[in-house]
Amino acid sequence: MSTIRVRGGQSLNYGDWVIQNVYMEEASLQCGNGQTLIFLIDLNVSSPRTEAKSLVKWKNSLSPPLPPFVNSWSFTKLGNLFNWDAIVSDSTNTTVSHINLSGANLTGTLTALDFASLPNLTQLNLNGNLFGRSIPSSIGNLSKLTLLDLGNNLLEDALPSELGQLRELQYLTFFNNSLNGTIPNQLMNLPKVWHLDLGSNYFITPPDWSKYSCMPSVTHLALDLNVFNGEFPSFILECHNLTYLDISQNTWNGTIPESMYSNLGKLEYLNLTNSGLEGKLSPNLSMLSNLKELRLGSNKFNGSVPTEIGLISGLQILELNSISAHGKIPSSLGQLRELLRLDLSVNSFNSEIPSELGLCTNLSFLSLALNSLSGPLPLSLANLAKISELGLSDNSFSGQLSGSMISNWTRLISLQVQNNKFAGKIPPQIGLLKNINYLYLYNNMFSGPIPEEIGNPKEMMELDLSQNQFSGPLPSTLWNQTNVQVMNLFDNQFSGTIPMDIGNLTSLKIFDVNTNNLHVELPETIVQLTALTAFSVFTNNFTGSIPKEFGKSNPSLTNVSLSNNSFSGELPPDLCSDGKLTILAVNNNSFSGPLPKSLRNCLSLIRVRLDDNQFTGNITDAFGILPNLDFISLSGNQLVGELSPKWGECGNLTEMDMGNNKLSGKIPSEFGKLSKLQYLSLHSNDFTGNIPPEIRNLGLLYKFNLSSNYLSGEIPKSYGRLARLKLLDLSNNNFTGHIPKELGDCKRLLSLNLSHNNLSREIPYELANLFSLQILLDLSSNSLSGALPQNLKKLSILEILNVSHNHLSGTIPQSYSIMESLQSIDFSYNNFSGSIPTDGIFERATAEAYVGNSGLCGEVKGLTCPKVFSQHKSGRANQKVLLGVMVPVCALFIGMIGVGILLYWRHTKKHLDEESKRIEKSDKSIKMVWRRDGKLTFSDLVKATGDFNEKYCIGKGGFGSVYRAQLLTGEVVAVKRLEISDSDDIPAVNRRSFLNEIESLTDVRHRNIIKLYGFCSCRGQMFLVYEHCGTTTDSVAPKSRPMMRFVAQQLSLATNHHKACLADPFGMITITKLTGYD
């Protein structure tokens, strides 16, 4: 026999080769005479052996583990290729025709598969595997392929254009891969394809749909779940033989072309769900008379549903959910007698249910949920004997559930009528629903007891009767539903107990009976609920303790809510033994003892409420690092110990309340790491030390309460950076220093309480920038001094203002009366003087708001100002004395005003520069107090007034204050301090005016003019030292002092009027020196 020697030296029998393609290679033929004939032969041939080797090579490229059946593919069985699993030969058993590996769960690529070695392959089915990467272009060599199914894989990249060479293809699907790019238009050249599925990929819209022509044979076209956009693809409208069209889950725009209704009359299945289409539904829909399934849900259609839709008599599935339809539900739907599924949910239908729907007796699914439907259910719905799923939730249906209807719905699997206005009792016929899995009646107005028959259905999986008005005991048959997984009975008026039989519900996952009137102890059998994930009994009247094995015997527990009962005893120690608990709420009970040790490393915890119990013990190490914790409250217990720095590692914490315990030590600086913290309350404990400045890093903090501790030091200025802060309470501590003006930057503050500390100095005027301050401003019981800031009047929505028990002085600003929102004020126990404002809250406040201020008077019950006239002769005598004193004083004022005007004109502006130089030159000479006997120094004044302490102040004016100074010699003088500006930058005109006053008082001699002892300029201020004459009231009889005070007030008003008219910045010796009134 002749042999062929190919490159590589391999010899093969010539008869084994079948020439298939034109791939030529050099070879030699050994002839009988020993000569060698060189010629070209085709190596691209097919035989069972070459096909087998190609398949084995591909198998070996796949990732293990491989399914057992692939073991039949091996070199040892090359002669039995057609006995390999998943391989089918043609009718002659000479070549591979079918490869079916669907659902084999193989992992690998198609790159190693030599498609050229399988030229007779007609069917390749690799659906349901894990093949990845791209599709090789060599797939175009499978010229006899009729079926190619690569669906449900991980294929990527674009489709190769070589697919257009597969002219025999009839069935082509790439469904559910990760293919992308545009669809190659060469696919449209495949004349025999009737099934094309490119759905669930990432194909994009090509530049021009007009380059695509319709496959003449295609009847099934699916382009769903891609990223197509733009207008409806025009080539589809030319596919006249289409019976199945799915272009859903894309982002088309525009309307449905009217030509679709006339061109695609053979359609039986049309799915345009969630495609971004808009406009009104056309009456021409009825032209698609062969439709069996019409799915148009989740689009932007509007208007009413055309009545012509009832003409599509063969329709079995109609989905018009979420299309913004409104108006009435068309009664013509009753003509669709073959209808199996009708979904009109999530629209704006506002009618009643048409009774004609009862004619659709084949309906098994009906959803009218989330509309505005109303009225009672039509009795004709009782004809829907095949109904298995009925959804009427979230409407305004009323009336009762008719027993006659329910008795015909025996096939019901799901009945959902929640969120309506149904009332009355549940009919006992509910027990006939033997197949019911889901019964949702929640949030209606059902009342009365639950019928015992509700326990008859044994297939119940979820029962929700919550948020109604049910009453009476829980029916005993409830505990027979051993398949129930969810039982929600909360927010009703159930009474009685939970029986031991609850232990029968071994499939129960969620049990919620909160907000009822249930009582007595929980049964021990709750530990038998091994599948339980959520157990909620809060807001009832339960008593007693929780079974100790609870939690340990319920390994799936994630939510335990026992709040607002009367439970006692200790919590079960193993509540979180399996580390799945996320919510633990036992607040407002009488639990005692230590906290469960299982909480320490319960990393799953998200929300913990143990507040308002009687827990004891040390919590320093009670909790570890809980990375998921969002909320924790331990307030209102008897816990001791310190806060661990580990709390700073709970990075998701947003709220922490440890108030009202016996915790001590310092607040950890690590709290500054809790960047998500919004609520921090450590009030009513025994914390000491300074507040950590790191708190400034808590940019989301809106409530900060450290009240009633023993904290000390100054309030950090940096807290002004807490821009979201709404409530700040640092009251009842030992804070010292001044109130930081930076707090005025906390523009969202609603309440500020700094009371009962040792804060001093003035109230910063920057607090007036807290425009949102509404609830409270409490600065009481400190050592604050100075005057009230006038600009606090800008706090226009403030309701409570308390500055009592301080050392504040001056008057209560009249402008505060415009604070219309004030409901409560307290200025008591300060050094305020003058008249109380008369408008707003000041009209309603009682004397208690002002007590402890000897200088205050006003129209307040129990605190009145002196009357003007006296009916006694002594009063009239005192008035004469008063007038005798006041007339010279007024003359003195007029004289001083004249002197000031004269001096002003003598020293014009052209002399100011020269005068300024002279003043600067002699500046050193006025830094000491001048006096004729030379015995008075500035140091004497500082000592005599306590460095000008407020308690020595006997009067204030617009530009300075007057102090009473008793020198070491016993002599008493009056010191006028003028506060103008920095001593290095006093304008020349101000210094000139200062000297004017000195010159006037030294030049003028009169018995009614008070003596000037000396003057000086020092520390940025100017000082005049006068003879101290006491007050006017010291010169008159005690009975005349009320009259004196009134006249002094009137003179003060007159003097202020003159000050406003004349340009004398300092004044001379004003009424302040005489009476203490400004």
Automatic annotation (TrEMBL):
> For this protein, what is the EC number?
2.7.11.1
Tell me yes or no: is Cell wall biogenesis/degradation among this UniProt entry's keywords: no
> Which UniProt keywords are given for this protein, alphabetically ordered?
ATP-binding, Cell wall, Disulfide bond, Glycoprotein, Kinase, Leucine-rich repeat, Membrane, Nucleotide-binding, Phosphoprotein, Plant defense, Receptor, Repeat, Secreted, Serine/threonine-protein kinase, Signal, Transferase, Transmembrane, Transmembrane helix
GO CC terms on record?
A: plasma membrane
Molecular functions per Gene Ontology: ATP binding; protein serine/threonine kinase activity
Q: Where in the cell is it found?
A: Cell membrane; Membrane; Secreted, Cell wall
A Pfam family the protein falls into? Pkinase
BP GO annotations = defense response
User: Where do the TM regions start and end?
Assistant: 881-905
State the SMART domains in the record. LRR_TYP
Give the UniProt family note: Belongs to the polygalacturonase-inhibiting protein family.
Q: What is the name listed in the Swiss-Prot or TrEMBL entry for this protein?
A: non-specific serine/threonine protein kinase
- Species for this entry: Psophocarpus tetragonolobus
